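Technical note accompanying the year-one report. For the benefit of new consortium partners, we illustrate the data format agreed upon in the data management plan: each record pairs a sequence with a structure-token string. No post-processing was applied to the example shown here.
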Amino acid sequence: MKHWKTLAAAAVAASFGASALAESIYVPNLSYRTGPFAATGIPLMNGQKDYFEMLNARDGGIGGVKIEFEECETGYSTEKGVECYEKTKGNAVVTQPWSTGITLQVLPKTNVDEIPLLANGYGFSPMADGKTFQWAFNAPAGYWDAASMLVSHLDGLDGGLSGKKVAFLHLDHPYGKEPVPLFEKKAAEMGFEFLPIPVGLKEMQNQSAQWLQIRRERPDYVLMWGWGAMNAGAITEAVKTKFDMSKFYGVWWSGHDADLALVGDAGAGYKSISWSFPNADAGVMADIKTHVVDTGKSLSNPEEMAGVFYGRGVVMSMILAEAIAGAQAEFGTGVVTPSQVRWGLENLNITEARLAELGMEGMVPPFSTSCANHTGHSGGWILEWDGGKFVKASDHIMPDTSDYAELIADKAAEYAEANAPWPVNEACNATN
């Protein structure tokens, strides 16, 4: 451990200057402020950045140690994402890949480099299995959690899902395909028809063919796993074709205020499942305004800051900051190592009381992680567009993790076998 810290100190000294070295923790973010997904990437990155800016200005960082938060632009390209990972990994205590495609490419590297991979609410769902994926985390909720919550919610409406038809409009990309195994499992068990409708990267802004199929198939519900320009294209097309927006649901990456603002009142009734919610009156938002916005350090604006994605970015950085703080307390050091941050990510305990202390009431459900559970499975809320903003339209919904525990185990084992030799954490079991 001392050897790692010595090497890290030397490397960071060369890039940041020796005087600041022992006082900083390097936290890179593989961002995408450019490309077809920039509209959704920008508010998320701004929220993440502003939270760490606030901690640095208000508290002198975390545990009195400044955070060096740096972005490496990927444009959401898997190839560029891997390049950014290689460029930033030397001094990093974490990597944040920001794409399911990049996550899948970087995932094997983290075992070798021993750097925790943090993919908040995205990535490979079997990463929930901490014994198999000992360096990967997707807290506070994964895509199979989202699928479970949506199926549960829809089954509670209008006589249940049996005999119904559910269209799945999804990006034809690893991200969009991620929940398919669980949806197929539930369709077989519950007796509803599951109809995948892929949208290619070149079709995102012109989905006429997909919506012609939707009109022809007349599904009872449309579920969307979209991102960036795909979301706006789908919502605009749904309004144009007079689809019943109350039957249109999205995953949390398809619940972006700016996309719905394009259609305004015509989009009222559209819903998304979400593990975060913006709270403009939260104490953390006031602190960000005082220490970041008012001092000219923010790249955001009031409209964006009131939205779902900026608030989600704030929550994401809070989760990482809590892991770092936990590691500092556990190991009695300010400048933590990647393995210590991994411990912090495995021992998160985000309670209602802690959220109140952080000034983040109502912005994320309480959750905890463990050696075996790298997701947390926080649950979330149904958010509904009221014509001008997203509002909470349900109580807190929890996923039925027992419903896909076997699927997680099977897919994790399948992945490990396909990538053998794959190291696992033998000290970890299902109860810790």
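Partners are asked to follow this layout when depositing records. The two ends are 24 Å apart (CA to CA).
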